[in-house]
Design goal:
single chain; alpha/beta; Rossmann fold; 2 domains; 9 helices; 5 strands; elongated
Amino acid sequence: MIVGLYARVSTKDKEQNPENQLIRLREYCNARKWNYKEYIDFASGSKKDRPGLKQILDDLDKLDGILVLRLDRFGRSLQNLLECFNIIRSQGKFFEAIDQGLKISEKKDPMNDFMLAILGAAAEFERELISERVKDGMARAMKENKKIGRPRILDKKNISASKIIKLRESGKSIREISQIVGIKRSTVYDIIKSSEKPIR
């Protein structure tokens, strides 16, 4: 028995790590003495063209089934989920969301299909709610003249642009400044470049 372990997170940020999902999936397989292959995506669950998802579906002929931690990790679009399930079922493979105890196989199970449809619809509804909340939050922030978006790298590391400029004026190279303050060379270069006065 060899199964595909699929894990998905929305971004490559440190706060979101697919390893958290994979640890649980590996433990599940090891307890059953199943072999496995891992597939990972850093993308929204509403996207159909995720490389990891495409690869695991392409590899179905080499796998016995697909394991995910929860259904929303596999997808947040009901239409996309149902399309994937049809592909899995047509090839005589199984799909299992281990946290929810949901499993589909090549045989039709009306009750299980109903539960999958309900959970898929819930995942899509939750995505829409989150999207609406984000839009409302951005509109309110713009109205209150607040900064929108993630904190800049300088804010995160508590570094001022003036410190970088002073280091440059002291004769330090961009590489040296990058090592001293702990940020990318390209960021250092952009800060120095933006501080330079244009030649008239």
